[in-house]
Amino acid sequence: MKRFPKVTKPCCVGVIALLSVCLVGSGPVAAESLLESLQQVGPEYANAYLSPLIQSWGVNQVTALYTTAAIGKSKLTWEIGLKVAATHISEDDQSFRTFVPVTLDEGVGIPPGDPNYGREGFLELAGPTVMGDTDTDGTATLYVDGVPIRRESTISGVVNTRWVPMVIPEASIGGIAGFKGMIRFFPSVKLGDLGKLKYFGFGIQYGVNNLIPTLPIDVLVGYFRQSLDLGSFYESDASSFHLGLSKRTTMVTIYGGGALESSNTKVKYNFDDPISGTPVPISFEVDGVQDYRLTIGATLEMGVRINVEANAGKLAVYSAGVMFGF
Amino acid sequence: MKRMTNLWLVLPLLLAFGGILTQVGCSSDSTTPNDNPPALTSQGAAQQAGQLAYLLDTVLGIIGDVGAKDVYTEPVNYSYTIGTPPDEVTYYVNGAVMMDYRCGGVAGDPCPRDSTETNFLRIYTAVDPPQNISLYQDDIDPGNLLGYVTFNVDVDPYNHPSGSPKSGTVNTNGLDPTDFLNYGIYNGTFEVIDVQWREGSYPGPGTLEYTAPPYFVVVTFVGPAERCANMVVTTDEETEPETYIVDLDTGLLVETCPE
C-alpha cells in the first residue's frame, strides 16, 4: 500500500453468500460491498486482508471430488447433487500484520519541504482480515526511524468466522470404459457493476479396478480443474491430481485418498487514491499454499448418497454432500 | 421398511462421524502474514534515544511548574508543534508523575517541598496502577498513542535555594520496574547518569544511556545553555560508532542544532 486513504466505515458485507460460490440471492450486493471496501486500500493491504478467503476458496474448489472409488466399466451411471466444502482457518488468519518499505514522498502524503521528505521508512499494515473482527478497523501506520509519524484507520472484517464455506453443484456420468466425467457448474450471474460470476470445473476419473479386478478395494485416479471468476475482480483456478480408495459395506462406503493440488488467484480493482483523487488500477496474484491433501470420509448408500469427509493438508477442509443418481 | 429403519440407524452414525472429523481433524496452518517489524536501524535507535532525551527534559521541566504542592501527582500536559501550516503536526505529552521530597537524602523522612532541609527528590511514574508518560499525536487520528515511558529517577542532591532556580544531579534510582521507553514498535531500557539539571535550562552536562539490542546509545547532554544533545550509537558488532544530534525542544534528529 502506498497511500493513506481516507477510509469510511465499509458497508456491512457480511453476506455469507459471498463466501459460497453459488452466490444465491444477495450475492451481488455483497460482492460489490466487498469491492467498495477494497477500493479504499492498496494492494499489499488487500493481499493480506483477503488471504484467508483466497486460500480457502482455492482449496474448497477441489474438495469432495469423490465419495466412492468404485467406477464401473460399462454400466452407465449418472449423479447430480450438491456438496458443501468448508475450510476451517487458523485463528491467526483472522488478523494480519505486515510491513512494507516505502519512500516518504507525495505517494504517502509527505509533501516536499517536510523534514522527512525523501527518507526511507516503512508502513505497518495491521488489522482484521476479511474473516476477522467486524467491529474493529485496521490501521496503516507510517514509520520513519521506528517512529510513527502518521496513522490512519482502514477497513474492518467482513464476516467474523473461522469457517469459509463454498457450495458446489455437481453432476457426473460414469461407466464409460471405466471412466467417469464430472462437471461443477453454476449458471452465470450478473453481479452489478462487478461483472459476471462464472463457476465451471471439469474432471475425469478412472476406476483402476477395471484394469486390475483382483484389487481388494476400489481404487480410482483422477484429475479435476475448477475456475471461479467474479467479473474481472477475482479470477481463480484450482486443479487436483488425486488417488481415491474405498470399501463398501452394506450401506456405508468408507473412502479416503490423497491428492496433489494447486491454485492461483488474480485480483484486480481500482484503488480510489485519496491523494491524486483518481482511480489507480491495482492487480496482484496469489498462489495457493496447499499442495497436497489426505482425505477420509464415509458415504451413506441409500439410493441417495450422503457423505461427510475431512481433508488434511496445510489447510483443514471438511465437506458434506447429497447426490442423487443411478 | 427395513431399508428405512437402516437409514435412520446409519444416518445419525454418519453425522456423528462427520462431527468427530471436525473435532479431531487437523488444524490449518496460518496463511496470513503476521510479520515482525523490520530490524531497528542505527538511526532508528538514535531517534528513540533522542525522543527519550526530550521526554526526560520535559519531566525535569515540570519540577519548576509544580507550584506549592508537596506531592505532585496530577497529569502532565505539554504540547509542541512541528512543521508549518498546513503540514504542521502537534504532539501531546501527558501522564502522571509522582514526586517524593525528603530531608536527609534517600533514607531521610518525607519533607515539605519548600522546607529548607529538603535535599532529595524522587521523580517516578506510579507502578500500581501503572502510569506512564505518553506521547500522542493529534494528526489525522486524535489520541493516537505514539509511545510511553516509565521514569524512576532521583534528584540527589536537590537544591532549592530561595529566590534561585532549583537544581540537582539526576540519576536513575535503580528501583524496579526498569526504566523503559516503548516508542512506536520498538522498546528499550535506559539509565540516567549524573545529569546536572537546573530549572529553566536544558539538562547537562551528563549522560543518558539507552539500550535497544543490538544498539547502545549514549546521549551526552552538553550543558544548560545547549538546546541539542550529542549521541553516539554503537552495536554489539565491531562496527564504527555513528554520531547524531537531537533537538531537545522536539526530540527529533537534526543535522545541525537550530539557533
Major beta-sheet overview of chain A: 10 strands, antiparallel, barrel
Rg value of chain A = 23 Å
Q: What form of chain B results from the Cα inertia axes?
A: globular
- Uncertain ranges of chain B: none
CA-CA gap between termini of chain A: 54 Å
Give the tally of β-strands of chain B. Answer: 17
The helix content of chain B is 10-25%
Largest sheet of chain B: 11 strands, antiparallel
Strand content of chain B: 35-45%
What amount of the residues of chain A lies in strands? over 45%
Textual characterization of the structure:
The complex is a heterodimer of chains A (326) and B (259). With 326 residues, chain A is mainly beta. Chain A has one domain (15-325). Chain A has helices at 27-38, 43-60, and strands at residues 77-88, 95-103, 120-128, 139-144, 147-153, 163-176, 179-190, 196-207, 218-230, 234-248, 252-272, 279-287, 292-302, 304-313, 316-325. In chain A, β14 and β15 form a beta hairpin. The longest helix of chain A is centred in the first third of the chain and has 18 residues, at 43-60. In chain A, 50% of the residues are buried. Chain B is of the alpha+beta class. Chain B has one domain (14-254). Chain B has helices at 2-24, 42-61, and strands at residues 75-82, 89-96, 98-103, 109-110, 118-124, 133-137, 144-150, 152-159, 167-172, 180-183, 186-193, 195-198, 206-212, 215-221, 228-235, 242-247, 253-254. Chain B has an eleven-stranded antiparallel sheet, with helices on one face. A six-stranded antiparallel sheet of chain B has the order 4-3-5-8-9-12, with no helix packed on it. Classes of the chains: A mainly beta (326), B alpha+beta (259).
